Structure to design on (152 residues):
């Protein structure tokens, strides 16, 4: 029996949606914080050179992306703890997650030579995780809407 077939989860898709949103928010906060605070070491580990890349040093790009993840994490957490999930808000989060995945693919495709193997693997792993959040959020949002319609 998969997580999707679990009877308890099927009865409470809204709770499961909230849990996935909280995981998304928590991991975004953690990754964003690490990127913002350890941009220099991450640039050394992940990039083939210091830059500049489009006018900014590699560490500055990593710090900027990390700092941008912090308000995203706050938004996702705020949506997760709302009294009732707002479908449009969850869809926006899913769209933002898919934008991250697409951006990661473009970044690696267009700027492959800027990354070490470790950097490319980390970008790939983050994109896979974010895609997983987007899929789960959409799945449990649909289930929550269906459950609300069936109950109402």
């Amino acid at each position: 029996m998969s997580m999707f077939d679990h009877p308890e989860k099927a009865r409470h898709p809204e709770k499961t949606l909230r849990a996935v949103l909280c995981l998304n928010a928590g991991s975004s906060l953690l990754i964003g914080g690490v990127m913002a605070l350890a941009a220099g070491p991450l640039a050394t580990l992940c990039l083939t050179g210091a830059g500049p890349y489009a006018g900014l040093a590699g560490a500055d790009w990593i710090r900027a992306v990390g700092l941008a993840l912090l308000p995203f994490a706050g938004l996702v957490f705020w949506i997760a703890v709302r009294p009732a999930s707002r479908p449009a808000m969850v869809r926006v989060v899913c769209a933002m997650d898919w934008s991250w995945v697409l951006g990661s693919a473009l970044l690696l495709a267009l700027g492959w030579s800027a990354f070490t193997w470790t950097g490319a693997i980390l970008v790939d792993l983050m994109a896979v995780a974010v895609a997983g959040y987007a899929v789960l959020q959409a799945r449990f949002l649909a289930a929550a809407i269906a459950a609300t319609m069936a109950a109402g």
Notes: The chain has a mean pLDDT of 89. DSSP finds six helices and no strands in the chain.
